[in-house]
Amino acid sequence: MANYTVKDIQALRERTGAGMMDVKKALDEADGDLDKAMEVIRVKGLQGASKREGRAAVEGLVAATVKDGVGVMIEINSETDFVAKSDKFIELGNTVLEVAVSSGAQNAEDLLAADYNGNPLSEYVKEEGALLGEKVEVRRLARLEGAFVDSYLHRTSADLPAQVGVLFAVDADKEPAQTAAHDVAVHIAAMSPTYLSREEVPEDTVADERRIAEETARAEGKPERAMQNIIEGRLTGYFKDVVLLDQPFAKDTKTTVGAVLEEAGAKALSFARFRVGA
Q1: Are the C-beta atoms of 122 and 134 separated by less than 8 Å?
Q2: Where is the Translation elongation factor EFTs/EF1B dimerisation domain (predicted)?
Q3: Cβ 138 vs Cβ 126: under 8 Å
Q4: CATH class for domain 6-52?
């Protein structure tokens, strides 16, 4: 074991601003020599890493891939769009996505704990963030399965990587189901539904919307005999706003997403939508 003390760790942290584990590893590698450990930290770009921990990472990218009926999507954040559009950050995103696919991780926490070259992926992400000079975070992960899963990535700016990503799974993998699934994925990116179906809307949320509809109608002086129809009509309007299958289809607002999928012989199974920082 390298010869160093707690005071040595504290001193090196104060000099470099590097994190506790990074300092200990550097001292181990330098056999307790503070000057050599300082050089290790500088070479690896870990200097100042701990000082970045409190910064907000609100820029970044979304990346996704689909293979054998399994779609995987990740969001990874940086502090600035300057870093977000850099080749090194985009390469980092691709690596994180590859690990997400190979590890089978179901959430960001599991993904960060997954193995990458013999160490947790979190260490690699932290090191790359240090080299980039910004706080970098793997924010979230989605994994969907279905007979067919479509992925859609949208750039909100030509000089940035994808800022919006969608995965949409259906139970049919032939045409016209695939085309309909892709069109719905694009619709999800634009219209940002909250729920797949009415059944997914929590009962207390429905109750609140019904109460608000009734209170609003009474405040407007609507006749009592029409009250129930007005309440149900406004509740239907709420569903059209937040439920994917009830939403007017973006490409043809005379029909609904549910009707488009039914005509294509496909049943919606699940969806995920990420927007960077949202």
Answers
A1: no
A2: 71-277
A3: no
A4: mainly alpha
Q: Which residues touch 69 (CB under 8 Å, ≥6 apart)? A: 145, 146, 147, 148, 149, 173
Q: Output the 3-class SS for 245-268.
A: HHCEECCEEEEEHHHHHHHCCCCE
The DSSP output letter for 195 is: B
Output the CA angle 68-274-109, nearest 5 degrees: 75
Q: Does residue 56 have a pLDDT over 70?
A: no
Task: Please list the residue range(s) of the chain that carry CATH number 1.10.8.10.
Answer: 6-52
Q: Where in the chain is the domain with CATH 3.30.479.20?
A: 59-162
CB 79 within 8 A of CB 59: yes
**DSSP at 128:** H
Q: What letter would DSSP give residue 265?
A: T
d(CA 44, CA 26): 9
Quickly name the fold that domain 59-162 has.
Tetrahydropterin Synthase; Chain A (3.30.479)
Tokens of 166: 């969608």
Q: Which residue has the tokens 């990346």?
A: 63
Note the pLDDT tens digit of each residue in 165-223.
999 999 999 999 999 999 999 999 999 999 999 999 999 999 999 999 999 999 989 99
Q: Quickly state the pLDDT bin for 43 (edges 50, 70, 90).
A: low
Got the DSSP string for 31-80? TT-HHHHHHHHHHTT-TTTGGGTTS---EEEEEEEEETTEEEEEEEEES-
Main-chain phi, psi angles of 194, to 5 degrees: -100, -35
Q: For residues 75 and 274, is the Cβ–Cβ distance under 8 A? A: yes
Distance, in Å, from the CA atom of 103 to the CA atom of 89, rounded to the nearest integer, reads 21
* Host H or E run for residue 2: none
pLDDT tens digits, one per residue of 102-127? 999 999 999 999 999 999 999 999 99
